[in-house]
Amino acid sequence: MGILTKAVLLPVTISFILASSVISTRSFSQENQEQETQQSTSESTPEKASKNASEKTTSNGDAAPVTNEQQSPERPDISLPKALPEIYELDLKHYLPEGEYENIMVGDNEHVALVTTHDSELPKGIAILIPDWQQPATSPQAINELRKILPKQGWTTLSLQPLDKPENYPSNALDDTTKTAENAEQLAQYQQQLAPLIAASIEKAKSFPGIIILIAQGQNAAQILSILQQPEFAKPNAYIMLSAYMPTTQETQIAAEHLTELTLPILDVSLKADHFQVPRNVALRSKYVKQLAKSQYRQTTLFNFTTGYYDANALATQIKGWLTSLGW
């Protein structure tokens, strides 16, 4: 029986081994075929996609070339910065109540003016306040404090937002003749813009009771001398200059000459610690006034701590005393 059993089982075992080897060979070949199929499919997919895209673009004709604007995102429009006076006006309208400012029309242009009415039972008049260029209507150097103090003395104040500084003044030209001509041209254009604003302010001030005084500071104060010197220009009852100066010699002399030609009362105020150009301008104006014996002119210097900044109480006292000497 043992021999017979071995004889029967041996062929069965051999056939089983052969069958299992065939099955493993077939499974290995199937796996290789599947991997090759997947690889060929992944390689052919981009080609098919690009082919389909090209067929879509060429189905209706030639495709338009791709521009840089289509490749890159749109850039936002960047506007130029606003002028300094415009920024000041926007700030005033944003932070102040509507009742504290008014718009003065000069032609088609609108200018902001701060109005502070008097606190007295007997109004004395209206004071038009003009800071130096590149300063706001609430300039802390003097104008803003006068807006607070003068109404307590019976004055209504009208503080104007000054115009922007001329672009090419003082001139950078190397030749003296060219420099003088460019300075004169720039300032003439500036005065043509400033004069209508002052005229409109004086016309508005006539609606208030009392006299009209004009108070200006810095280079605007010197420029206004040339404007008031014009015969046809409507003048205030009195003019007060605060640290008036011009940085160029020719314009300093012109301002001094125009001062002596005016007949209205003028108060010329400066500081101990002032802009470095102010003392030279003050000395020249004093010289011209003495030579031509101008009447109703007073020149005074006030003490201060911070350069260019007035003590508000001392300035208001000086103005009150001067106006009282004139009978106002």
What's the alpha carbon Rg, rounded to whole Å?
44 Å
Cross-sheet strand order for the largest sheet: 1-2-4-3-5-6-7-8
CATH class: Alpha Beta
Shape: globular
Going by CATH, the architecture would be 3-Layer(aba) Sandwich
CATH superfamily: Alpha/Beta hydrolase fold, catalytic domain
Characterize the largest beta sheet: strand count, sense, and whether it forms a barrel: 8 strands, mixed
**Strand fraction band?**
15-25%
Quote the average pLDDT: 83
What is the string of SSEs from the N terminus onward?
Answer: HHHEEEHEHEHEHEHEH
The fold-level CATH name is Rossmann fold
Structure description:
With 328 residues, the chain is α/β, with parallel strands linked by helices. The protein has one domain (84-325): Alpha/Beta hydrolase fold, catalytic domain (Rossmann fold, 3-Layer(aba) Sandwich). It has helices spanning 2-59, 68-71, 84-95, 143-149, 176-205, 218-228, 249-261, 278-292, 312-325, and strands at residues 101-106, 109-116, 125-130, 155-160, 211-217, 238-242, 266-271, 297-302. Strands 1-2-4-3-5-6-7-8 form an 8-stranded mixed sheet, with helices on both faces. Strand 1 and strand 2 (109-116) form a beta hairpin. Helix 5 (176-205) crosses helix 6 and helix 7 (249-261) runs parallel beside helix 8. It starts with a helix and ends with a helix. Mean pLDDT is 83; it is low at 1-10 and 40-59.
